[in-house]
């Protein structure tokens, strides 16, 4: 399955603040509660997710509906990839893997909503780049960044783009190298005990589906 968008570059938010959040995994109500607690203003603030909006939680349909909101942005996670590949593109192996890893909610979801969800998932980028009002450049990629320079993104092969969604190599090896051309890259996918910093990469997936709170960080 080919990716329609590899990298989305967001303009500087001149009105409010930008935040980044870890994997949502169908826990929208909990996310909304934490956004309220930090006085998140949907009229001017933006929330950028590291992917995996769906599965393992009770509100996967509501999580996909976030993609319709002007204040919400997300990169594609491996769970969105599996849903699109398994359902729309009829990849039987991906469909089985998806169902076995939390995708069973789709059996009770309204069929007439699927096409809209497919369209929204297809429009999810593999990476997001955003510059804060202070001039710092941030990258958001779901699982890993298999390059040494942020500019490598523009020339990634299909295999390297897949690694952006699936790989845990740098996480498992605790690689502390610095990716050039970017101040900080945020990842989810791999569960850690709180925020984990390796080089200039920050992992913010604490395992909300296991009962942890979201990690929501301001980009400033």
UniProtKB/TrEMBL annotation:
<feature type="domain" description="Calcineurin-like phosphoesterase">
    <location>
        <begin position="20"/>
        <end position="191"/>
    </location>
</feature>
<protein>
    <submittedName>
        <fullName>Metallophosphoesterase</fullName>
    </submittedName>
</protein>
<dbReference type="InterPro" id="IPR004843">
    <property type="entry name" value="Calcineurin-like_PHP"/>
</dbReference>
<dbReference type="InterPro" id="IPR050126">
    <property type="entry name" value="Ap4A_hydrolase"/>
</dbReference>
<dbReference type="InterPro" id="IPR029052">
    <property type="entry name" value="Metallo-depent_PP-like"/>
</dbReference>
<dbReference type="Pfam" id="PF00149">
    <property type="entry name" value="Metallophos"/>
</dbReference>
